[in-house]
Design a protein that fits this description.
The protein is of the alpha/beta class. It contains 9 helices and 9 strands. The protein has helices at 31-34, 37-40, 43-48, 50-65, 71-82, 97-101, 158-166, 186-192, 219-231; strands at 7-12, 87-91, 106-107, 110-117, 123-125, 144-148, 168-174, 196-201, 213-216. Strand 7 (168-174), helix 8 and strand 8 (196-201) form a beta-alpha-beta unit. Helix 5 runs parallel beside helix 9. The longest helix is centred in the N-terminal third of the chain and has 16 residues, at 50-65. The relative contact order is 0.19. It binds adenosine-5-diphosphoribose. Residues 13-15, 18-19, 24-27, 30, 92, 109, 175-177, 179-180, 201-203, 205, 218-219 line the site of adenosine-5-diphosphoribose. The site of adenosine-5-diphosphoribose has 23 residues, from loops.
């Protein structure tokens, strides 16, 4: 093990939760092949038909509630626990499988299990079912919404994430198609900071060429292998 273990920054996407039974967005049969994202994942869609948006997230919340973390989530929790340097996990996912495996991830696109008020900004643990008429528990306005970042909204913690990327010795992107910014640009920021970059994915992504290295295969096999290699280095 290197005496001066550098900081490892990990970005995960839907592919890390695929083998837990949660759908990805752009693979065959993915979420965006079945729903129009403009209707269910934009502020305009929410203004037009808030109950359609709530129904979409109620279904995803029910689906996610029954999911269990898989070997990839467990391997990242092991890395965080056993690696002598700092490990930061940033996720685009709104499920809580990293937390269920023991990792406190930075949820840049929010979380399905949290709700917020569009009027006063209050936040609370989301009930399984949310409806447009639900009054905010703080200001009583009927303006509750999932605490999820929609297209056209600013993702969370971007300054904190920029600081992590700037200090990364290793940057790994796991199970993401690299089609949505700003997450798709993190690999370039990490490279500029001198990080060694690795993509772990079932198949080549839009941004594969930006990585120094790739491990191809299902996350439940490739992530444990990668973690074992890091911990036995
Ligand atoms: N193991 C590893 N990678 C996998 C697996 C698997 N078992 N299954 C699928 N993948 C990979 C696919 O090859 C693809 O590159 O996961 C990626 C899934 O890509 P997307 O469906 O586009 O998901 P993601 O990259 O997380 O989307 C980013 O877009 O819709 C928005 O906010 C949403 O956070 C999401 C963002």
């Amino acid at each position: 093990m290197d005496r001066n273990p550098g900081k490892i920054v990990v970005l995960t996407g839907a592919g890390v939760s695929a083998e837990s039974g949660l759908g990805t967005f752009r693979d065959k049969g993915g979420v965006w092949t079945r729903y129009d994202l403009n209707e269910v994942a934009t502020p305009e869609g929410f203004r037009r038909d808030p109950n359609k948006v709530h129904d979409f997230y109620n279904a995803r919340r029910r689906n996610a509630a029954g999911a269990k973390p898989n070997a990839a989530h467990a391997a990242l929790a092991r890395l965080e626990r056993d690696y002598p340097g700092e490990v930061v996990v940033i996720t685009q996912n709104v499920d809580s499988l990293h937390e269920a495996a023991g990792t406190a991830a930075i949820h840049m696109h929010g979380r399905l299990d949290r709700a917020t008020c569009a009027s006063c900004g209050a936040g609370w643990d989301a009930p399984m079912e949310m409806h447009a008429a639900d009054p905010c528990p703080v200001c009583s306005e009927p303006s509750t919404r999932p605490d999820v970042v929609w297209f056209g909204e600013v993702p969370h913690a971007l300054d904190e994430i920029a600081g992590h990327l700037d200090a990364a010795a290793v940057f790994a992107a796991i199970g993401t198609s690299g089609q949505v910014h700003p997450a798709a640009g993190f690999v370039s920021e990490a490279r500029r900071a001198g990080a060694r970059t690795i993509e772990i994915n079932l198949a080549p992504s839009e941004i594969s060429d930006l990585f120094h290295e790739r491990i191809e295969g299902p996350a439940t096999q490739s992530v444990p292998l990668w973690v074992e290699r890091l911990l036995s280095a």
